[in-house]
Design goal:
mainly alpha; 3 strands; 5 helices; 168 residues
Length: 168
């Protein structure tokens, strides 16, 4: 059975290094690849977006802040907040794991096992981590919208309680 060039290209393993055999060592020469730099940049942007998303949830809106227990009384806010935290943590793990592994492969390229095939990191994890980072940013946005609803409910309750107290 003959494979088409496109289908074999899609399931091809990432390019591994070229083994150069020396006396009792194998030195791996890897092609130039920006994966390590882009992996660390992706993690940095995930961290920045998480910091901005988290700060925007708890920062006083129009100079008015609400107590944290009042904010977390909203079940939908609490659930989406936990999903945003979980997806951020999973995205960070999936971004850092292949990035650090590939960085280690590039730095430790001398092997004393003569059967070494010059390994590379699993780059599919990096793509999955990028997708989860996008999901995390969207969950932070939904959490912000739900926090605005919780703020409005809190201030409406405070306003109603204050108006009733003045009427009696």
């Amino acid at each position: 059975m003959k494979k088409s060039p496109l289908s074999s290209r899609l399931i091809e393993d990432p390019a591994s290094g070229t083994p150069i055999t020396g006396k009792d060592v194998v030195i791996c020469k890897y092609p130039a690849d920006p994966m390590v730099i882009l992996g660390y940049l992706s993690f940095g942007f995930l961290f920045a977006s998480t910091l901005a998303g988290g700060a925007s949830l708890f920062y006083p809106y129009k100079g008015k802040s609400i107590p944290l227990p009042a904010l977390f009384q909203s079940i939908s806010f609490f659930v989406f907040f936990l999903i945003a935290l979980g997806s951020t943590g999973l995205a960070a793990a999936m971004l850092l794991w292949p990035t650090i592994t590939e960085h280690k492969h590039l730095l430790s390229n001398v092997h004393y096992n003569l059967e070494t095939t010059c390994p590379t990191a699993k780059t599919g994890l990096l793509g999955g981590g990028a997708f989860l980072a996008l999901d995390a940013a969207l969950f932070w946005l939904v959490s912000l919208m739900l926090a605005d609803n919780a703020r409005e409910d809190y201030f409406d309750d405070v306003k109603d309680a204050g108006g009733d107290a003045l009427a009696t």
